[in-house]
C-alpha cells in the first residue's frame, strides 16, 4: 500500500485508563502500542485523540445514584452506557500511554469535555451534531483517506470510522492495531456496521508489507 499526503493515521484514545490496570481497562489494550508505533512511522500525517472528561461527566455511573458501571441510561441524545470514572481531565489516567512513540503527530483532538454529552467519535459528539473540528482540519489539508487505530474498537474507533465514512472520507480500520471492550455483543455489532458502511478491515502486515 502506498501512502500519500492525502492519507492520515488517526490514533484513538491510547491512554493509560484504557490499558491493563487502568480505570476502564480494555483487555490487551497495551498490545496495540508497538503496532501503532510501527504504523505511525509510515505516515506523514498523524492525528491523536484523547478522551478528556470533567469529573462531573454524564457518562460516569458514579454521577447517577443507584446505577452501576456498564449499565445504561436514557439521555436526551439517546442511550448512554455508564462507565467507571475514566480519563478525567489532567489525571494520569487521561495521559497518553508512555510508550506511544509518535513525535510527528501534528494534532491532538480532545473529546468528551462537555459535561452533559459523551463523545465516542473523534468527529461528532454523541448528539451526532456537535462537531469537534476534526473534519474541517482534514478537509483543509485535503485528506482523502483515514486509517483508524487504537481503543476501543467497538466504541471510539468504530464511531470515529463510521463518522469519517459518512463524511465522505475513505476509511480503513487496522484490526490488530485496535482492541475492544466487547460489551453485550458490541464488537460484532460494530464490525457489522463498519462492513455495511464499506469501511475496509485491514491487518497491519497487509498495510506495512506492501510499503515501497
Ligand atoms: C471509550 C468508553 C468510554 C473509548 C471512551 O475510547 O472507546 N469507551 N469512553
Ligand atoms: Zn470516555
From TrEMBL:
Molecular function GO terms recorded: metal ion binding; nicotinamidase activity
Enzyme class name: hydrolase
UniProt keyword annotation of Aminoacyl-tRNA synthetase present: no
Taxonomic superkingdom: Bacteria
Keywords assigned by UniProt, alphabetized: Hydrolase, Metal-binding, Pyridine nucleotide biosynthesis
Residue spans crossing the bilayer: none
Signal peptide: none
Pathway(s) annotated for this protein in UniProt: Cofactor biosynthesis; nicotinate biosynthesis; nicotinate from nicotinamide: step 1/1
Enzyme Commission code(s) on record: 3.5.1.19
All residue ranges annotated as the Isochorismatase-like domain in the record: 8-198
InterPro entries in the cross-refs: Isochorismatase-like_dom, Isochorismatase-like_sf, Isochorismatase_Nicotinamidase
One record GO biological process: pyridine nucleotide biosynthetic process
Family recorded in the similarity comment: Belongs to the isochorismatase family.
PANTHER family given in the database record: LD05707P, PYRAZINAMIDASE/NICOTINAMIDASE
Protein name, entry field: Nicotinamidase
Gene field: pncA
Amino acid at each position: 500500500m502506498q501512502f500519500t499526503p492525502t492519507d492520515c493515521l488517526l490514533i484513538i484514545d491510547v491512554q493509560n485508563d484504557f490499558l491493563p490496570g487502568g480505570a476502564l481497562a480494555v483487555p490487551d489494550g497495551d498490545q496495540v502500542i508497538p503496532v501503532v508505533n510501527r504504523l505511525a512511522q509510515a505516515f506523514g500525517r498523524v492525528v491523536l485523540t484523547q478522551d478528556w472528561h470533567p469529573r462531573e461527566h454524564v457518562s460516569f455511573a458514579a454521577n447517577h445514584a443507584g446505577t452501576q458501571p456498564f449499565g445504561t441510561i436514557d439521555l436526551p441524545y439517546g442511550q448512554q452506557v455508564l462507565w467507571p470514572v475514566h480519563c478525567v481531565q489532567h489525571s494520569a489516567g487521561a495521559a497518553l500511554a508512555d510508550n506511544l512513540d509518535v513525535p510527528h503527530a501534528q494534532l491532538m483532538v480532545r473529546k468528551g469535555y462537555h459535561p452533559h454529552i459523551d463523545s465516542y467519535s473523534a468527529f461528532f459528539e454523541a448528539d451526532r451534531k456537535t462537531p469537534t473540528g476534526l473534519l474541517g482540519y482534514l478537509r483543509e489539508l485535503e485528506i482523502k483517506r483515514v486509517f483508524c487505530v487504537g481503543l476501543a474498537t467497538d466504541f471510539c474507533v468504530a464511531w470515529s470510522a463510521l463518522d469519517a465514512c459518512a463524511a465522505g472520507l475513505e476509511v480503513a480500520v487496522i484490526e490488530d492495531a485496535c482492541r475492544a471492550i466487547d460489551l453485550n455483543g458490541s464488537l460484532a455489532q460494530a464490525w457489522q456496521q463498519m462492513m455495511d458502511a464499506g469501511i475496509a478491515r485491514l491487518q497491519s502486515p497487509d498495510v506495512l508489507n506492501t510499503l515501497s
